[in-house]
Design a protein that fits this description.
This protein is about 60% helix and about 0% strand. With about 80 residues, the protein is mainly α. The chain has a domain of about 35 residues. InterPro entries: Formate_DH_dsu.
Length: about 80
């Protein structure tokens, strides 16, 4: 996947989630995705997480691949 789209119309939850992903980009991808997921669970209130999930459904290309991986349910 390429870089997420960045425009002036990027919703704040998308911008924040992408910023968080960049902070963990130095880690191996599976570890980085877990770190992003942990951050979202620990620091984001439920309505922010809900808004992020809605953005994924609307336009996932705006999100860093680490954010998308962090939101995927773990394999069974």
């Amino acid at each position: 996947m390429g870089e997420p789209q960045v425009t002036a119309a990027v919703p704040p939850v998308v911008r924040l989630a992408n910023d968080i992903a960049r902070q963990f980009a130095h880690l191996p991808p599976p570890e980085a995705a877990r770190a992003v997921a942990a951050h979202l669970d620990q620091f984001w209130e439920p309505r922010m997480r809900t808004a992020l999930v809605e953005e994924v459904a609307t336009d996932p290309d705006r999100l860093d691949p680490l954010v998308l991986a962090a939101l995927d349910p773990p394999p069974a």
